[in-house]
Design brief:
12 helices; Fatty_acid_hydroxylase; transmembrane helix; oxidoreductase; Sterol_desaturase/TMEM195; transmembrane
Amino acid sequence: MAIVQKEKLVRDLTISFFIYSLPVVAIYLYFQLGGTSVNESHITVPSFLEFLQPAFVNIRSWGLIVFMIVLGIIEFAAGLYDDEWTGEERKIDIVSFLAPKLLLPPVIAFFSLTVLPYLIPNLENSLSWVPFWGGFFLIAIADDLTQYWYHRLHHQVPFLWRFHRTHHSAPYMGMAMASRQNFIYTVFFSQIYLTATLTYLGLGLPALFVLVIKSFITLGAHSSIAWDKPFYKYKVLHPIAWVLERLISTPATHHAHHADTSGDGVGHFKGNFGNMFFIWDVIFGTGLITRKFPESYGTKSYKQEEWYAQFLWPIFKSKKEGSSLAEGVLSFPTKHVPVQVEETPLPVLEQVQS
């Protein structure tokens, strides 16, 4: 089994390196076949998108926060949390929402203004010759595929799981828990620094568009408002649904990832790792599409740990007995032990002669 898993990992990593190279090859062919000069800046928004640039700037600065708050209010007004947002749940969700707004800006600023000029001096804006579309797909693929692996490894490596389990401890889905993460998981988001590096190299404009689009997709996938249900309900929309659910994360596919069980044919916490693009799960065989929603969310072993233990582990440990965040607990099992059930003989089927 270990050999098979190792072979699959090597295969998936090989495929990933190939996918990473696709935008680079496309950009190279664009200049080679088009005879366009690389000695001048090409990072300008296409004319048909110029009217959107101010909107994207405002959305990036404050619009996303307003969107999350408004959508969260709608969810609460609709009673979509079933009175589960109480006690420690409220505290960890609020802290996880506010803390990154305070923690990440200075970290990213230090990385961009101090670390990068030291590590790669004289390379600022060195990729400004890349056309907007090239920068867009380069960042979209590099950012989201990297996050796919970051996310996947935090599910498959027991030690890393404890830095991500906070996100899965919520017994509900919605805007309240969309930012719910351990601070270490957030600070070490690998794709954040990758995107910051590409922005430093001159791809800030396409990075802005990718970030805004990705934010809406991931927030929509976490929302308790199942906006994708009409695509499954009406037959005329089924072709769109087929493409949509394989291309991006939807509430149905991402809610399945947050289910508290995988034994019902709907929940799939061992897969559906995609954030903006679900196609990574399709390519690597980690996806499950059912167009159904789980009956319950979270983890069955959840002890409603203190907010500070969930957000600041391992600096602060949980006082809850049996918690994987408690003192002395070495790991948290990521595999569920199958329940033994008494087998009932199936009726013998009569052979039908043709």
